[in-house]
Amino acid sequence: MLRGLLLATLLLAGGSAAAETRYDTPWAKISAPAPGTVQAIGGPARGCILGAHSLAPDGTGFEVLRRWRNRFWGHTELIDYLTRLGKKLIAAGMKPMLIGDMSQPRGGPMATGHRSHQIGIDADIMFTPGPLSPQARETFEDPPSMLTADGGAVDPARFGRTQLAMLKLAAADPQVARIFVNFHIKKYLCGTLAPGERAWIGKLRPWLGHDEHFHVRLRCPTDSPKCEEQDPVPTGDGCDDTLAAWFRPAPPPDPNAPKPAPAKPKPLPAACTTVLSAR
Q: Which CATH code is given to the segment(s) 3-18+37-253?
């Protein structure tokens, strides 16, 4: 699996490496959650959430960005996780974390920005901590990258002990299934941490983008039988060929290859029809 092939796939599918993709989705137009007992339904990139709860604008160790986007909803386990993590950060003498997108009130596909975050178990956390004023949180944009200006390596002047501690605390919670970080960040950690200190970075999965924030994904909640669990992350620290593949050159394009058809959003689970129409 070559990095070039991954990049091409994501570009065609509307991934974060492409210009912001826009979908005509009714899920983005709903302002309130569907009534009922909280349930995550489907998978992170194909699903919805019943009875979603909202995260407060701020609390001990956290501040929520751009609430005008109405993406501060999630399963109660996500709300509890972020609340726990904020308290751990403060207890460790750190500044409050800045939380970006979680899920929409009923989950489902977003109009812009993400293909996942659909079932209330995902959250974006900025590598640069707060605090920010309430007004600055609402106008927040363009957080600083942790990479050098050419995007080819981690900038140690920006990615330091604070960012390492944030990731380690975030990954330590047993409810966390995986954390997406830029592949350069994963490589940097593999190269700077001693082998005996790397066990926890197995949860850190290399991906495109994710150089100014990291993306936390929880395990399926036990109260959500219709939630589709991803395969567990492989054993080990991930400092292996799965990481090296991101740095291999892409094969030359085939000029005779047919142009792929535009990607279409996958159909959601049948239960999401009820969630979408609930009053």
A: 3.30.1380.10
